[in-house]
Hints:
Layout: H1 5-13, E1 18-21, E2 32-45, E3 48-62, H2 67-78, E4 87-93, E5 96-110
Parallel strand pairs: 1-2
Antiparallel strand pairs: 2-3, 3-5, 4-5
Amino acid sequence: MWIDFDIFRELLKQTGLKVYRDKAPKNTAYPYIVYTHAFEKDKRASNKRLGNIKTFQVSIFTTETEKEVNKLTNILDAYQVPYTSFDSIAGDENDDTITNYFTYLDVMYHVE
């Protein structure tokens, strides 16, 4: 199901985690979500541009396990929003292991 930007943001907020665009403020407590515009493409038919699809990378930064990811996947699945499989990158910060679980999903912008 295609979603627009407002629904996209609302679904992220439904996780109960803090949500930021591009970068969380310094010293933000974990877990939290950061979404970033990754790339875009146009939806066309009959040589006309009907819409613009922006792909966002959605990252969950946590000191916990993949249970934080389940908060988001359960919501996306309930609304039948397609997303790529989650990948992860682990790193150290102040002697804690911080994991960035991330996926990509598309958001439709209609062209008038």
